[in-house]
Write a structure and sequence with these properties.
mainly alpha; 108 residues; 2 strands; two-stranded parallel ribbon; 52% helix; globular
């Protein structure tokens, strides 16, 4: 997660309260999604950005997870995401995201 997005997430959490913020990621690999998820929950593991040492504990999902997928209009999901979903290792992404949520999320 780049430094600008870290700053924005931190500002939203401060403005609206971390219990009211849900982060939805779209990384194409489980490891990349997990790194971004860890950043918004436990703090920036690279120690480079505004979330270094900041444990927001935010709720975080990947756009291809069933809980988020069901929130979309099916036609919009089909048009915008389904093509990408076909080439992703969704099981790996779901596993990585579940692990991060179980360990670090405070607001599930």
């Amino acid at each position: 997660m780049d430094l600008e997005n870290q700053r924005r997430v931190k500002e939203f959490a401060e403005k609206y309260g971390p219990e009211n913020v849900v982060v939805v990621l779209g990384a194409s690999e489980g490891e990349a999604a997990g790194l971004a998820a860890e950043t918004v929950t436990a703090g920036d593991p690279t120690f480079a950005g505004p979330l270094t040492g900041v444990q927001l504990g935010l709720t975080v999902f990947h756009v291809c997870e069933p809980e988020i997928k069901e929130e979309f209009d099916p036609d919009v999901y089909e048009d915008q995401i389904s093509m990408m979903e076909m080439v992703l290792d969704v099981d790996d992404i779901v596993s990585e995201m579940s692990s991060i949520r179980d360990e670090y999320c405070k607001f599930l």
